[in-house]
Amino acid sequence: MSKVEPGGKGFPEQGRPESKPTLKKTPEGLVRMRAQAEKDVINILWFRNGLRLHDNGSLHNATEDKTAKLLPVFIFDGETPVTKECEYNKMKFLLECLEDLNEQFIEAGAKLYCIQGNPEEVLRKLKHRVQINRVCFDQDCEAIWLERDNNIRNYCVSHKIEVFEHIGATLWDPLEIIEANGGTPPLTYSHFCHVTKGIGEPKRPLPNIDLSTVSFYEIPDSILAELKTFPGVPTPEDLGFYKGDEEKIYKGGERTALKYFNRRMAVEKEAFLDGSFLPNRRDPDILNPPKSLSPDLKFGCISVKLFYWSTIDAFNQVNEKKSSSYLIVSQLIWREFYYAMSANNPFFAEMERNPVCINIPWKEDEQALEKFNAARTGYPFIDAGIRQLKKEGWIHHVLRNALSMFLTRGDLWLNWVHGEKLFRTYLIDGDWAVNAGNWLWVSSSAFEKSLNYSYSLDPRVYGRHVDSHGKYIKRYIPELANYPVEYIYTPWKAPLEIQKKAGCIIGKDYPEPMIDHDEAVAQNRQMMLSLQKDLLTQEKGQPNHVRPSGDLEINLFFRIHD
């Protein structure tokens, strides 16, 4: 938690504290002085991400000051906590998280105020009518939020409002990691682990706050009239999002997330008892996966510290010894790595201006990109993944890898930024840092072995490792539902008689492959080899940011098994 006090250092000064008018001791002046003295005193709890009450450091900061009443708010500014690239399922999930919070506040005799507008302007209007002691919020460590948060900090400092920023979305403060590494982020996963080990273990989760002991502020109608406040939590339609072909699978909200979290911990502990770990990675089920907690981590419905320590404590309890490795929580540590990499890099989701991205000369082919986005590649495993993504807002990591490699170095040789935007728009767990980091890796633009050409995921084979009977394809591409299992991944190879019997003619009812995979892989490998030689000559060695820890790291990432 960092506290910014009036006159504090670290942020550029944008203005001076407002000068107060000199009041003469006239009857009118005394009335004005009494009105100022009688202003309600409040602390604002500003929700962005971190949509929970458990392990909420900002809630602790806002309620420890007993001289002020608590005002919980969420501000719809067109950005927070999702970017402008957002579809129905993602917005619906966010609103369910807010509804769950609101219901919990209502039980305590309060409410979550949902306001539309610019955060700084909202503060200005409130400051005019009430005395604000504190503004408390969780850190949004991604660089794209820096301008917004600095504006708020500077406004508060210039108006003698205390700012409390809590590290709630990550295990460590990414800026502390960068400082501990000498001012730059650790450029490899293994080095990141080394640096964080030096910093020390993450903090334990904070205790819950009893809301029945909290004094809440109710905004009077006179102030509500000046703010664009929704009567309750808005609907997607209120915000301009309308349901099309989407199907709602995941429900947002802290209480739902905690229920599934407890089930997940039981599965993790059972795996530890069996002498294994990461059961969802060891035996991936792309057709009927357990309720993923990645959206809940993205929106902060589940505390990452609670997740980390519950896993570590379960392992230690089963094995009667303390774990000294991050291996059992590697998914959480990768998340931390990407947050640190992007914390001071506003161009992390770009190619040209991104200092850790190799500028690969990708092709520009609008027609190919359109076919990919429309799930018309002719490769059933790829098209099924795109259809599920757009319909449900979530796909398994196996599918994410397959789609990412097919679009980039595997087959189409198209820029990874197209896929990054597609995922960030539709995935309910798609955040800026982790999503971009994964695309940088798979496209061999960063983190993975520089311009790696040694292997490629084959869309005709990769899916069979996790779904040998093609049930996943049949669910999301019903045109192929009647195809024999031996042709489900390569329907164009089926004799015409079988195609007719299955009721789906390739080239008519379902497209032929848009590209020959074997030819594309051979060509792309040659391009990668040539680019790699040029890069190594130019850089006089392999750049640090494209150097993985080893083959095991790569295999775990792509679910490659011997």
Description of the molecule:
The protein has a seven-stranded mixed sheet with strand order 1-6-5-2-3-4-7, sandwiched between helices. It has helices spanning 27-37, 57-63, 88-107, 119-129, 146-158, 174-180, 189-199, 221-224, 254-273, 279-282, 294-299, 304-319, 330-342, 366-373, 380-392, 397-410, 416-426, 432-442, 471-476, 496-502, 517-539, 551-558, and strands at 2-4, 41-47, 69-76, 113-116, 131-138, 162-166, 228-229. It folds into three domains: 1-16 and 27-167, 3-Layer(aba) Sandwich (Rossmann fold); 170-207 and 254-344, Serine Threonine Protein Phosphatase 5, Tetratricopeptide repeat (Alpha Horseshoe), CATH 1.25.40.80; 366-558, DNA Cyclobutane Dipyrimidine Photolyase, subunit A, domain 3 (Orthogonal Bundle). The chain is of the alpha/beta class. 43% of the residues lie in helices and 7% in strands. Helix 9 packs parallel to helix 12, helix 13 packs across helix 18 and helix 17 (416-426) packs antiparallel against helix 18. The chain is built from 22 helices and seven strands.
Number of helices: 22
Poorly predicted regions: 3-36, 556-562
> Based on helices, strands and strand pairing, what is the structural class?
alpha/beta
Number of strand segments: 7
CATH topology of the largest domain: DNA Cyclobutane Dipyrimidine Photolyase, subunit A, domain 3
- How many domain units? 3
What is the class of the largest domain in the CATH system? Mainly Alpha
The CATH homologous superfamily of the largest domain is named DNA Cyclobutane Dipyrimidine Photolyase, subunit A, domain 3
**SSE order, as H and E?**
EHEHEHEHEHEHHHEHHHHHHHHHHHHHH
User: What is the averaged pLDDT score?
Assistant: 87
Strand content: 5-15%
**Helix amount, in percent?**
40-55%
